[in-house]
Structure formats: structure tokens, C-alpha cells
Amino acid sequence: MRLILHVSLTIVAGLLVTSQATSVFPLASNSTDACTDIYNHMLEYSIHNYSASLKVSGELAYKCARSFPFESKRAVAFVEEVRKYVNLQSTLEILESPPADYPMPATDILGGLDDIQIKASASHYSNHYDFDLDLQRLFASAFDGHLSFTLCSTSFAAFLSDASLVSISSNGIALPEVYVKDDAYLKYTDEKVPVSKVVAINGVDIEEYLPNLTKTASSQDWDSLYNQAFYSDSLSINTNGLPGYSPGLVGQPGFWWPGAYQILQFENGTIRKYETYVNFQKFPWKNTREVYESGCLQDSPSSSTTASATSSTVPSESSSAAISSTPSATSLPAPNFYPKPFNKHSANKILGIFPDSGILKDTAVLIVPTFKVEQGPDIEQFAQVARDLLNKAAERKKQNLIIDLSGNGGGTVEAGKNLFKMIFPDQEVYSANRFRTSELTDIMTQISLVDSAENAKFYDYEWRTKVTPDQKEHFESLEEWYGPYNVFGINSSASMAENLTLVASELPMSGFGDQKLDPSKPAFAPEDIIMITDGYCASTCTIFARLMKMNGVRSIAFGGRPRNGPMQALGGVKGSQVLEVKVFSNRDLTYYAEKMEMNSTLFTIVQKDLWKRLAPPKLDEFSYKVSAGSVNQFNAFSSENNQLPLQFVYEAAECRRFYTYDNYIYQNSTWSSAYDAMFNGGECVPGSTNAPGSLFDARASSG
Ligand SMILES: *[C@@H]1O[C@H](CO)[C@@H](O)[C@H](O)[C@H]1NC(C)=O
Ligand SMILES: *[C@@H]1O[C@H](CO)[C@@H](O)[C@H](O)[C@H]1NC(C)=O
Ligand SMILES: *[C@@H]1O[C@H](CO)[C@@H](O)[C@H](O)[C@H]1NC(C)=O
Ligand SMILES: *[C@@H]1O[C@H](CO)[C@@H](O)[C@H](O)[C@H]1NC(C)=O
Ligand SMILES: *[C@@H]1O[C@H](CO)[C@@H](O)[C@H](O)[C@H]1NC(C)=O
Ligand SMILES: *[C@@H]1O[C@H](CO)[C@@H](O)[C@H](O)[C@H]1NC(C)=O
Ligand SMILES: *[C@@H]1O[C@H](CO)[C@@H](O)[C@H](O)[C@H]1NC(C)=O
Ligand SMILES: *[C@@H]1O[C@H](CO)[C@@H](O)[C@H](O)[C@H]1NC(C)=O
Questions:
Q1: 669 occurs within a structural domain
Q2: Which of 81, 128, 239, 557 is most buried, with most CB under 10 Å away?
Q3: What pLDDT does residue 308 have?
Q4: Which residue, 637, 660, 677, sits at the end of a domain?
Q5: 440 and 562 assigned to the same domain
Q6: What does pTM read for this prediction?
Q7: Is 677 within the bounds of a domain?
Q8: Is there a single domain that holds both residue 653 and residue 688?
């Protein structure tokens, strides 16, 4: 339904509580080059050292980006380079015809690349931005947080506005309504102030606008996507270690141009206009050509200064066996959005809390906003916080454990497996994974064979050290391991796992290798543990949560679209390993290229040619600058079905609640609501229990 905006109503600009500087750069310009206008604007304000000088009109930045020249030949080559990585994406065939349970539309990624390449060669694009945006639309159509490329023109400007919305239910069960966050504050703290819900944006009914907006995000579940429209402290802690910086996709649409304004229409007839802007930290480019050359071209003389917008979009998650080491992050205070923690990671990557009052007084809470930890002290500290909390909980005879995974987009797989092992020391760490085989994986497999198994053990296409999902067996032959097996139309490897004993020589892994099993006994029974999510849980978060579910631990999902019925707790990608272009090109490509070179006589001309033709470019070898990119390398499978990748299995949470205002503001009220629903006979949203794919699936029990 489209609502007609009554233009006669007062359009109130600059009425925003959150907006400090009301004057975004005026659009009237003297030059024909929008990028020059930005340059002049920045220059003018930096001379005056005006504090708001970083804010630039979104429309001007959009115009500047859309004036980047389009070079057909270079673009055609670029698509070919991207395709070499996309060939390693594990879900290509199944995305073309997904099973009925998969809630998202089908998509043909390779076919889409063909189309874009044809359009590029026919110079269908009038500017480089439109070309990049077509690629972004294609990647987004996979709804896979592991499939993404940061392209030069779409990363030039991150669009922002001061609009931040929340979706609030009066009691957690009644259907929620959309409010501007600051209005909600007034509504729930001062009854006398009249506030009204949001009914439309830019003339489009809010319940049509938000799903349309959020389908650019990367979850594979409509309720999880819907939640990303809104303010979230959890998501902010995931990204920044602190609450307060995640306004939701309405206020932070990233490169998805929302129009020069988002005009909010309230139920009481009021209209409020939010201007789209961009924050630039610096802008040393005098015209479009300079911006384009420095931002997009590899060999540009000024390429050391890349365009940098200060605000990023919603973070994408990653999960890789991080066998790389960077220094641990600095120490941050505990987020005020939680009660005082018992112990915590210095950068708030994990926190333990023993709430001392009310319904939660016999409960321990483990908050895990991320698994993004680096090898070394960082991941060790992460493990130590969990270990101490669990051991102390047993000592204090706590009854229940709540694990809050809100906003958790994943990270290092081993950190998730180790956390599971600390909670269930007596259970196996089951892990079934397959990659998509192709001519490129054929040749990488052959190359790694010239090295010793010991040297090659951490490379993905080395078979001798991989083990079966239960860790019990190794593979008898290359053929047994590699296949290819036809798995839902995808040529795939056998289902396999990393040998955790080998992993334990590099990373904390309780009870493996030389590492002591600690805790040695489970502190809680499965029925006394619950997991809380906002549906965002992706990647390593889903690996951890799946292991927990396999052992009978229930989940409760919060939020989602304003309708009754179930919601998935794990709305993000369930792929078990991301291939990051940066890591792959620094480490793996270098390795394979060196082995090929050094042991040249061992390879045939055909193999050498194949490698030359198929090896993807390194990050700095693309025809355009790419600052990051990744594909989903491994599919993951449950222990009951080693054919259907988990991304395509619908799994409702055991219960769902909507957010109340308190739930948004005090995270311990979310824990109380969850406790009440899961341990205390409290209510779940109608139709949200015994739902498909949950532990108590009514379909299964009725036969
Ligand atoms: C346009 O020119 C006028 C008069 O020369 C000047 O005051 C104004 O700052 C210029 N605007 C821009 C965006 O350069
Ligand atoms: C600009 O203003 C800030 C804040 O008042 C001040 O700290 C900074 O030194 C100023 N910079 C220049 C170049 O004057
Ligand atoms: C209508 O709702 C808006 C948004 O909550 C509020 O700011 C405004 O004060 C309300 N106006 C009246 C007349 O109640
Ligand atoms: C949905 O979003 C697209 C851009 O992603 C936009 O072109 C279209 O107008 C939107 N439709 C509605 C109904 O908002
Ligand atoms: C949340 O924690 C605060 C102390 O930090 C406490 O005052 C409040 O009662 C708690 N709320 C709930 C619902 O547990
Ligand atoms: C895993 O690695 C360890 C250490 O090398 C080895 O002893 C063990 O046999 C391996 N597991 C399997 C199932 O091959
Ligand atoms: C799958 O593998 C088989 C056997 O190697 C091969 O013949 C077939 O062409 C492959 N299919 C695809 C789609 O790559
Ligand atoms: C491959 O090259 C390396 C380095 O020169 C060498 O140590 C190794 O023995 C070679 N492998 C074979 C199988 O020749």
C-alpha cells in the first residue's frame, strides 16, 4: 500500500533531537563537477576549522560517485577476476534452485556475472558506480554474509541520516510498532508527551519500506533482516565493543542510496524529514577524475590516499581458522547497557555476569557478542573469561545459564568450538564440512601434495591431515576425501573436519592435544541452559549454537516482523568457513604459487596452464581496487543430514518474544523476559513454539 504524502503538512527539517549540525552542505553549486563541490566545501570549512565540516550532503556525494567514468574493457576483466573467487563459493548450484524451506528467492550468481559482463562489454553503464552497484545487488541476492566484495565506488561514500528507529511491543507478546528511538524514550519515560508511531517513509507504508530496505543486508531470514532496520546496542558492541553506535539501516543505509531525504510520516499526521549525508574524514581530490583514480585504480600515483568515509555499514562476519596474529585490542570499559560484569574480555568480546537480584538471582549469564578474536593473547583471554565464569557458576551452585548471542556475526571458528567444549566437556565436537570442487580446487589439491603433510596441514586443500566429522578417522585416499560427490547438485568434497588435536597446537581447545580439559565436568544440564538471539547470529555463532542445540539446548529469538508465528534464532549464514580474499591472497595463493614454481618439474604443462588460467588475483592485482572480499568456502551439515547444507535448513527457535522498550534499553530485562518464557512458564509469541526445525518440532512428534 502506498500512502499519499500531504505536502501541505508542515515539513519540519532540523527538528531532530539527535541532530547537532542542521546545515548539511547546500546543494546549490557553482561547478559542474559534484566532486569539486565537495572539495571546495571541505576546504572552506577546514580553513574555518568548523567542527561540522566533515558532513557532506548525501545527494552531492551520490552525484560525485555516479560521475566516476566507466571503462568497458577494464570492467569486463574485473568481472572475470571476481568470477575466479566466486567459483570457490560453496552454494552456487543450490542457490539456483533452493529447497522449499529456504525462505529467500533463488538466484543465479554465475549467470548474473555473465549478464553484468555482457552489459559491461556493451558499455551499457554510464558510470562506474552503476556497474559496481549491479555487482553489489547480485552479491546481496545470495543473502550470504560470507559473499561480499568491497568495491571502490560503492565504498566511496557511506550514506547516513539521523533517523534511528525501534520496534516495540507493549508486553513482549503484543505485535510491535515502529517508533523513532527518541520518541520511544519520551513515550516510556514521560506519559504526558504525545508521541506517535511511524506509518510511512517516503510515502511507502512502513511495513513495505522496511523489508524492502533490509533485503540489502546479508541475513537469510526475513525476521533477522527486519531487526537490522532498528537501533541495536548488541550489534554496536559486536562492532565497537561499546553500545550506542548502531542506529539500524534507516540511519545507516551504507551504499544503498535512500534518496536525498527519508521523510517519516507519523500516525498523528506529523511529518519529519531526515536529510541523507556522508561524513568525510578528508577529501584531497580536486575533481572526479582524481577521486576515481585514487579510489579505483591500482597504479595511480596518488593511490596511497584512498577515499575514506568514516562510517561503515552493518559489519559483515567472518569465520576462519585465524592462523595469523595481530596484537590484542585495547581495554574498553564494560558497556553500561549491562549490569556490572563478574569478569570480561578487555575489548568486551565476552562478558560473564551473575545478576544479583530478581528473577535472575540463581542464573549465570555469558554474553558473547562476537567470536572475532585473534590468535595469541586475545583468543586465550576469551577462553579464560568463559572458563572462569563456568567454574565460578558451579562453585556458586547457579541453577541456570543464559548465553546471550545477540548481534553475534561470528569470528574464529575454533573460539566457538572451544566455548562449546567448556560448556559440555563430555561431548564430542561434531563438525561436518564440504567445499565445492572445481578445476581450481583440483589443481590446488595437486599442488599441496608436493609438500609434506606436516607443512601443508593448515591449507584447506591438503587431505592427509583432515578427519571425519566425529574426529575419529582419517581418510584412506585422496579420492575418498576429494570425491567429487554430487551433493544437491554441487560437486563436493567428502564431509570432513579439521583435526582438533592439530588445531590445539596453535589455539586454545580444551581437552585436545596437551591441553587439560577445563572445566572437566559440565556446570549445567542442557535443559538449564538457553541461548538468546536477535536472529543476527551468523557463521561461527551458528557453529557454536548448532553444537549446543545438538545437545538439547533451547533458543529464544527476539524481535522480527510484526506478525505472530515462529522466528529463526540463527538468521545469518551457516557456512562454516569464509575464504577472505586478503588472507587467501597473502597466504594460500603465495603458498601454491611458490610450490608450483619450486617443484616445477613435477607438474605437466597442462597443470601449469590450468593454474595460470584459474588462479585468482591477489587483492592488489584486481583491475580495480578492492579493499576486501570473501566467499563462503565450506558448507556445514547437521549430524542427521550430510546432504543438505545448513544454510538451506529452516530452524525455528523454541520460542519467540518481541522487544519491549525496557528490553532495548536494559539488556538484563531481555534476560529476565527470556528466563520467564523459558524456565518459568511465561509466554511466547502465539504460534512460535513447537515450530518447524525446532527441538520440539510438532511435525516430528506427530509422525
Ligand atoms: C559559489 O560562488 C559564490 C559566489 O562566488 C560563493 O560565495 C559560494 O561559496 C560558491 N559556492 C560553492 C559551493 O563553491
Ligand atoms: C580545530 O578545532 C579543534 C577543536 O576546537 C582544535 O582542537 C584544533 O586544534 C583546531 N585545528 C586547527 C588546525 O586549528
Ligand atoms: C505527533 O507525533 C510526533 C512523533 O512522535 C510527535 O513528535 C508530535 O509531537 C506529535 N504531535 C502531536 C500534535 O501530538
Ligand atoms: C525498494 O528498494 C529499491 C532499491 O533497493 C527501490 O528502487 C524501490 O523503489 C523500493 N520499493 C519500495 C516499495 O520502497
Ligand atoms: C537490571 O540491572 C539493574 C542493575 O544494574 C537492576 O537495578 C535492575 O533491577 C535489573 N533489572 C532486571 C529486570 O533484572
Ligand atoms: C589427529 O592428529 C593427531 C596428532 O597428529 C594424531 O595423533 C591423530 O591420529 C589424528 N587423528 C586422526 C583421526 O587421524
Ligand atoms: C562434477 O564432477 C564430475 C566428475 O569429476 C564431472 O564430470 C562434472 O563435469 C562435474 N560437474 C560440474 C557441474 O562441474
Ligand atoms: C619441492 O620443492 C621444495 C623446495 O625446493 C623441496 O624441498 C621439496 O623436496 C620438493 N618436493 C618434491 C616432491 O620434489
A1: yes
A2: 557
A3: 36
A4: 637
A5: no
A6: 0.91
A7: yes
A8: yes
Tell whether 365 is covered by a domain. Answer: yes
Q: pLDDT band at residue 126, thresholds of 50, 70 and 90?
A: very high
Grid coordinates of 442: 583440483
Last residue of a domain, one of 637, 666, 691: 637
For 601-635, the pLDDT digits (tens) are 999 999 999 999 999 999 999 999 999 999 999 99
Tell whether 352 is covered by a domain.
yes
Grid-cell match 557458576, residue found: 393
Query: Residue with C-alpha cell 545448513?
Result: 646
Quick one: cell of 208?
Answer: 513495505
pLDDT score of 51 = 53
Give distance in angstroms: CA of 664 to centre of ligand 3: 22
Ligand that comes closest to the CA of residue 450: 8
Let me know whether 382 and 362 are in one domain: yes
Measure the CA–CA gap between 689 and 703, rounded to whole angstroms: 17
- By most ligand atoms within 8 Å of CB, the mutation choice from 24, 25, 27, 30 for ligand 1 is 30
Atom of ligand 4 nearest to the CA of 216: 5
Q: Check whether 323 has a pLDDT greater than 90.
A: no
670 in contact with ligand 5, CB cutoff 6 A: no
* Residue minimizing CA distance to atom 11 of ligand 8: 450
| Residues 6 or more apart in contact with residue 545 via CB below 8 angstroms | 405, 531, 533, 537, 555, 569, 570
Q: Which of 16-20, 457-461, 567-571 has the highest mean pLDDT?
A: 567-571
- Distance from Cα 343 to the centre of ligand 5, integer Å: 18
Q: Is 594 in the pocket of ligand 8 (CB under 6 A)?
A: no
**If pLDDT is split at 50, 70 and 90, which confidence band does 302 have?**
very low
Place of cell 522466528: 567
Distance CA 229, CA 249 (A): 5
Cell for 236? Answer: 554496536
**pLDDT value of residue 300:** 56
Same domain, 349 and 406: yes
Q: Residue 50: pLDDT above 80? A: no
Q: Which residues contact 483 (CB under 8 A, 6 or more apart)?
A: 437, 491, 492, 493, 494
Q: How far is CA 461 from the centre of its chain?
A: 26
For residue 148, what is its C-alpha cell?
561480499
Q: Are residues 697 and 559 in the same domain?
A: yes
Residue nearest to atom 10 of ligand 5 (CA): 668
Residues 347 and 490 occupy one common structural domain? no
Between residues 165 and 315, the one the model is more confident about: 165
The share of the chain scoring above pLDDT 70, in percent, equals 90
Note whether 469 and 593 are same-domain residues. Answer: yes
| Helix residue ranges, H only, 262-345 | 288-296
Residue 400 to residue 415: CA distance in whole angstroms: 22
Q: Which domain holds residue 367?
A: 343-414+523-573+646-702
pLDDT in tens, 542-573: 999 999 999 999 999 999 999 999 999 999 99
Which residue(s) pair with 29 in the sheet? none
Residues in contact with ligand 3 by the CB-under-6-Å rule are: 183, 194-196, 266, 268, 270
DSSP output for 600-660 = GGGS-HHHHHHHHHHPPPPGGGSSS-EEEEEEEEEEEE-SS-SSS-GGGS--B-SEEEPPP
The number of domains in the chain is 2
Cell of 550: 545438538
CA of 533 to the centre of ligand 4 (A): 28
CB atoms closer than 10 angstroms to residue 625:
21
Residue with cell string 533463488: 106
Q: What is the mean pLDDT of the chain?
A: 90
- How far apart are alpha carbons 499 and 457 in whole angstroms? 9
Query: Looking at the structure, do residues 353 and 493 belong to the same domain, yes or no?
Result: no
